[in-house]
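Bumping my old thread because nobody answered last time. Still need a sequence for this structure:
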């Protein structure tokens, strides 16, 4: 079917012709872009024509860092996001415990003690008081720290004598007993939780897909396991996968993936695999981001999740099999380590590679030019800033924060930059990220004028962050990222034209989402474009 969109404002993303008035889609592709007259000329009577006056059409937005299955599962578990106190969290957890079958695991996510009235991390005793019989695991908002009860520790066999795995931390009281807080080495508990079934994964994906498309997303880069890829593949075979998914795999699953034919660049136009995903450090909120100098008022510099030798082996294994590499690095020491690893292995394996560093929340000034020279993508999450800026100031100090979340500096240095959400860490609505990139404030409009306002981006730079580079790192830049003839008919439509982005960003919503020319979301009075 042919479909024309006319009388609207189209941001093409093409440098030579950034705006257009109309476009034509046919068989899942964009076939023409231009003026109303150019598009309407010669159309047959069966072409569906949609006028979108006063709206803005942009290339389909892509969340370049997500956990799609994790997001879907999060929608079915205890949600502690935004709760103002430990007491409020315990009330929500107790409600889930009351409805759980005897002895089953109770799982949840989203708590952030930095926003609690108590301002202190919890412990196992808090959960023991409401759940002596159910093993309980509550993941912190960042995903790098878990809060568990005594029953969970007992099931996992974690005692005073348990050795802490390298690259992690089991918090202990003065007598050496576990407190119920575990940082980074989360598998010591998670390996004892019943495995999520294929059916449960597929159901989670469909829930997450519906939410994501309603936010204006046409694609996602999902950093998850091989089993999640297989669940996605089944949904694709069943005709139920609508989003375009670029899938990243952990290093320990590469050999198995290769034997199954899931190799670098393999897949389809809906689902393909490109990168190996590594973790070099933890998170700011858990104080496990790996820093060059100690946290404010502390002696520690965070945690390295990989040794230098392990990092080298993982990058080499990826390069040998034609895969690029994505490295989680939040702290400046971790970013330096990631660049060191790339630089060392590229001497033997020159590429070209589409490597990326995930988060880059703090980077040492001397590493900025190096990152640009190496053409390593900064895969950042603007939606982190509204909830992180106060914590960053408290833990890093103002001087270090000057090069924290430094998106404008990275762009000006020539570093490719893409945007994501890390959902379920933060909501995956691109409008949240776009606003954060433009304003650098939280929901209360603090700090006044924006946090380090020289790092603000324009609306159009933010749109590019969700489109062009995300297409390039995923290896589909010839098919996606801009609105041009021959590219996928993936479009996001806003209900405002953004002729004045600064005044419109707070009230704008997603009006429509098209994937392969199919209208998969249309806003009604009852729908909202939130994650």
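Sorry it took so long. Here it is:
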């Amino acid at each position: 079917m042919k479909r024309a969109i006319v009388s609207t404002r189209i941001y093409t993303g093409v440098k030579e012709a950034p705006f257009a008035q109309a476009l034509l889609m046919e068989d899942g592709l964009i076939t023409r872009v231009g003026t109303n007259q150019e598009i309407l000329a010669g159309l047959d009577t069966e072409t569906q024509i949609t006028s979108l006056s006063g709206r803005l059409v942009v290339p389909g937005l892509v969340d370049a860092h997500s956990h799609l299955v994790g997001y879907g599962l999060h929608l079915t578990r205890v949600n502690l996001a935004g709760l103002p106190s430990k007491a409020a969290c315990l009330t929500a957890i107790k409600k889930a415990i009351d409805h759980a079958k005897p002895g089953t695991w109770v799982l949840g996510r989203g708590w952030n003690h930095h926003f609690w009235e108590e301002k202190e991390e919890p412990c196992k005793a808090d959960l023991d008081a409401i759940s002596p019989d159910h093993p309980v695991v509550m993941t912190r908002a960042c995903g790098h720290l878990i809060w568990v009860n005594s029953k969970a520790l007992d099931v996992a066999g974690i005692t005073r004598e348990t050795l802490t795995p390298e690259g992690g931390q089991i918090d202990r009281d003065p007598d050496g007993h576990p407190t119920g807080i575990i940082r980074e080495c989360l598998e010591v508990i998670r390996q004892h939780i019943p495995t999520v079934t294929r059916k449960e994964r597929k159901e989670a994906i469909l829930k997450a897909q519906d939410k994501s498309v309603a936010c204006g997303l046409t694609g996602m880069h999902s950093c998850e396991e091989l089993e999640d890829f297989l669940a996605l593949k089944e949904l694709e075979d069943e005709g139920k996968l609508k989003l375009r998914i670029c899938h990243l795999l952990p290093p320990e699953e590469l050999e198995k993936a290769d034997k199954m034919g899931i190799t670098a660049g393999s897949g389809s136009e809906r689902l393909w695999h490109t990168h190996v995903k590594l973790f070099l450090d933890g998170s700011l909120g858990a104080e496990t981001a790996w820093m060059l100098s100690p946290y404010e008022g502390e002696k520690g510099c965070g945690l390295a999740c990989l040794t230098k030798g392990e990092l080298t082996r993982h990058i080499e294994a990826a390069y040998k099999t034609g895969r690029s590499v994505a490295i989680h690095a939040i702290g400046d020491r971790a970013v330096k380590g990631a660049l060191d690893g790339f630089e060392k292995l590229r001497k033997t394996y020159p590429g070209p590679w589409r490597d990326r560093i995930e988060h880059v929340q703090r980077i040492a000034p001397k590493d900025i030019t190096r990152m640009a020279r190496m053409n390593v993508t900064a895969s950042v999450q603007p939606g982190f800033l509204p909830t992180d800026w106060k914590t960053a100031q408290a833990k890093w100090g103002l001087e270090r924060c000057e090069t924290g979340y430094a998106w404008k500096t990275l762009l000006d240095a020539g570093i490719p930059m893409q945007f994501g959400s890390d959902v379920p860490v933060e909501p995956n609505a691109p409008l949240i990220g776009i606003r954060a990139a433009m304003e650098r404030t939280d929901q209360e409009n603090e700090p006044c004028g924006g946090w380090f306002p020289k790092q603000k981006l324009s609306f159009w730079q933010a749109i590019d962050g969700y489109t062009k580079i995300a297409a390039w790192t995923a290896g589909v830049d010839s098919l996606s990222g801009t609105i041009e003839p021959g590219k996928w008919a993936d479009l996001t439509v806003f209900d405002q034209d953004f002729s004045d982005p600064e005044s419109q960003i707070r009230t704008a919503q997603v009006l429509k989402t098209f994937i392969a020319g199919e209208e998969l979301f249309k806003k009604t009075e009852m729908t909202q474009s939130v994650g």
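The two ends are 31 Å apart (CA to CA). Let me know if any region looks off to you.
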